[in-house]
Design a protein that fits this description.
This protein has about 350 residues and is an alpha+beta fold. The protein contains 9 helices and 12 strands.
Length: about 350
C-alpha cells in the first residue's frame, strides 16, 4: 500500500477546469460552515466564481493542495493579492485547509509558497485575518511569526428589534437641509468620479499598527467591483449623501446581500468626510439603509459588521442602533525581510 504525497501546486482559477474551480469552491464552503455553523451556507458555485475575480491594477497568485490527480478534491487553498500601482511593499493573503486535514503541515506548506511568491514580487509585508470563531487561526498566525496589527469587533444587529421611533429620529433632517440621499446598486456613470473620491474617506478610519499607506480608488475599480458583485450573485445597495451646494458626496454606506443567503446582510463601509461630521449624516445613512433592507431584502434577519475597537465614533453609532458583539476579528501582518518561510 502506497501513501499519497500531498504537495502544494500553483493553481490558476481562471485557466483551471470548471471541476477544479468547483473543488476549491467546495473547500471554501465547507470550511466556512465549520467555522460559522449557524450561518446560511455558502454555495460552492459562487465561491468558485469569487476566486476568479481580480480588481483592475491588481494581481493574484493561487496555490492548492489536491487529494487526486484530476484535481476534483481540494484539501487546501491559498491566494496572495497585491496591487501593481500602490502599496507596492504589501500583499494580502487568504489561506484555508479543510477541517478534516488540519494539523498535518498543509497550512505551513501553503504559507511557504505564499512567502516565496511575496518575496519574488518584492513584497516585504503580508497581511491576513483570523476570527476567534476559529481559535486555531490565531495559533497558526503566531507560529508564522505574525504580529496582531488591528483588532476589530464583529457585531450583529437584529433588524426586527430596531424601534421605528429611533429610525424616525435619525432620518429627520432640518428645514433647508442641503444634503440629499441617492440610492444605487450600480453607481451611475456621472457619479463614478465622485464616488471614487468619497470611497477614499475610508483612509481616515483607524488602521492600528498595519504598515500600509492610504489606498487610491479609481472609477475603473468601482465599475469592476460592480460587475464582480453581480457575477457573484450579490446585490450591493449603496446610499450616498450629496451636498447639493457643491455636488460633492459627503458620505456613504453600503451593504451586501445575497438572495441565496437571505437571512444575513453584511454591512460594508460607512464613511463621512471629516468636514461634514457632526451633522447627523452617519446616523441618517445608517437608518435609511436599515429601512431599505427591511423592504428590499426579503427574509433578511440580521446585519453583521466590523469596527476597529479604536473607532469609537462609529462604534457609538452602531451600539445606539442596536448592534451587539458577535465575534472578534484580527488583522495580522508578517514582515518578510529576515524570514525564511
Amino acid at each position: 500500500m502506497t501513501t499519497r504525497t500531498l504537495t502544494v501546486t500553483p493553481f490558476d482559477p481562471v485557466a483551471a477546469s470548471p471541476q477544479s474551480r468547483l473543488a476549491v469552491g467546495r473547500l471554501l464552503s465547507e470550511s466556512e460552515t465549520f467555522t460559522h455553523p449557524d450561518d446560511p451556507p455558502r454555495r460552492p458555485e459562487r465561491e468558485a466564481v469569487w476566486i476568479t475575480h481580480v480588481t483592475p491594477g491588481e494581481a493574484a497568485t493561487h496555490f492548492a493542495v489536491w487529494d487526486d490527480d484530476e484535481h476534483t478534491r481540494a484539501l487546501g487553498w491559498t491566494s496572495l493579492e497585491y496591487s501593481l500601482t500602490q502599496n507596492l511593499h504589501a500583499a494580502h493573503a487568504r489561506l484555508t485547509v479543510h477541517p478534516a486535514w488540519r494539523r498535518r503541515g498543509l497550512g505551513q506548506g501553503l504559507a511557504r509558497a505564499l512567502g516565496e511568491t511575496a518575496r519574488r514580487e518584492g513584497r516585504r509585508l503580508v497581511t491576513f485575518g483570523t476570527t476567534n470563531r476559529l481559535p486555531a487561526g490565531e495559533a497558526f498566525a503566531r507560529r508564522l511569526g505574525a504580529e496582531p496589527a488591528l483588532t476589530l469587533r464583529q457585531s450583529q444587529l437584529d433588524l426586527a428589534a430596531i424601534p421605528d421611533s429611533l429610525l424616525d429620529a435619525w432620518t429627520a433632517r432640518p428645514e433647508g437641509d442641503p444634503y440629499r440621499l441617492h440610492l444605487w446598486e450600480r453607481i451611475p456613470e456621472d457619479f463614478l468620479e465622485r464616488a471614487a473620491d468619497v470611497f477614499m474617506v475610508m483612509n481616515t478610519a483607524p488602521r492600528g499598527d498595519l504598515d500600509v499607506d492610504d489606498f487610491q480608488v479609481t472609477p475603473e475599480m468601482i465599475r469592476a467591483w460592480d460587475d464582480m458583485i453581480a457575477e457573484g450573485g450579490e446585490v450591493r445597495p449603496l446610499l450616498a449623501a450629496e451636498d447639493t451646494r457643491t455636488g460633492e458626496l459627503a458620505g456613504y454606506t453600503e451593504v451586501f446581500w445575497s438572495p441565496e443567503r437571505a437571512a444575513l446582510v453584511y454591512q460594508g463601509a460607512t464613511a463621512v468626510r471629516p468636514a461634514a461630521r457632526g451633522q447627523g449624516l452617519g446616523k441618517w445613512l445608517k437608518a435609511a439603509m436599515v429601512r431599505h433592507v427591511r423592504v428590499h431584502c426579503p427574509r433578511a434577519r440580521v446585519v453583521r459588521t466590523n469596527n476597529a475597537h479604536e473607532n469609537a465614533a462609529m462604534l457609538r453609532i452602531n451600539v445606539a442602533l442596536g448592534f451587539t458583539p458577535w465575534a472578534e476579528f484580527t488583522e495580522w501582518q508578517v514582515r518578510l525581510e529576515d524570514r525564511k518561510g
